[in-house]
Amino acid sequence: MINPIGGINSVKLTGYIEMTEDYNGDLHATIDANKCDFEMKNCLKYNLLKIENLCSIFTNKIGMFSMAFNSIKPPLKCPLKVGNHTLMDTQLDLTIFSVIPLDGAVWVANFKLIGTNGKIKKNGIFTDILNKIQPKLKCPIKVENYSFNNADFDTKVFSMMPIDNSRIARQIIPLKYENCPPDNLSMRLIVRGSGGIESLNFTGYFSVINDITGDIYVAIDSTRCDLERNNCDKLDTFILKNFCYILVKKNGIFTEIFSKIQPRLKCPLKIGNYSFNNAAFDTKVFSMMPIDGSFWIINIRLIVETKKSKKPILCLNVEGKVVKIRV
Predict the structure, then answer these.
(1) At a CB cut-off of 8 Å and minimum separation 6, what does 103 contact?
(2) Which of these, 60, 56, 28, 32, lies nearest to 44 by C-alpha position?
(3) Best CA proximity match to 293, nearest among 162, 160, 138, 118
(4) What is the pTM for the complete model shown?
(5) Which of 47, 96, 212, 303 meets the CB 3.0–4.6 Å disulfide criterion with 269?
């Protein structure tokens, strides 16, 4: 039984661990996590995390869990023996998670401690090799002569590892660009996008139906789903201010796109028809963001703000998926 107490970038744990029988074997832990909104109405399941070789982690003096395990009395060590182990104000440092977007959510996690008990794993990547060993190999390993013949190893296990001259790259695949209602907005956009390796390419045109004055900003609502679209997670609205400045900024992340618009677009926006061809966007700007392996549903709104009002002048619904491929 463990009682957590939250702190700033840390969690303090108190409680005890009860071993009801001796255990002689290696251990690993698995963690399933679900990220939910505060109302617990929408949840997104995250991939299983597996921590191997817990027996060695118990005694590691400089590992990320060392402070926590050093606070357990008597110390945990393998083989585990019957008895109680007390957590004495165990401090778990959470600063390692500072770069991971954990905020603004309720996290539901399932933690399992699993013993291998010296048995060979079935259906593992080495199973075929180990099954060919005669006599059968098992722990504890005995003094003996062993042989194996025609033991196969499936190298597809390396298919996503950079072990040759190829590399793993991100591909964004756009599936839909669609103006959203109402139809009486000041701008209409027709765009065709194609996904490349770490880039997007756009061709299309748009119309400005009436002159537009005022400060313009972009509001983006995003929903991230698994690739089967069974579980989705709505993200906070992202606001991109100073659109008029971004239009003319040199060496910005959108410079390549806006420089391809003809005639040149600038504020205040004037009535007219505008076109763009082969406008490229370098998606490496997202390289540190966890957007892979997901289906994205995005609503983009261009909003003009004056002293008296705010109103949308363009609305676009976008859908696409992000995958990792070997190139």
Answers:
(1) none
(2) 32
(3) 160
(4) 0.50
(5) 212
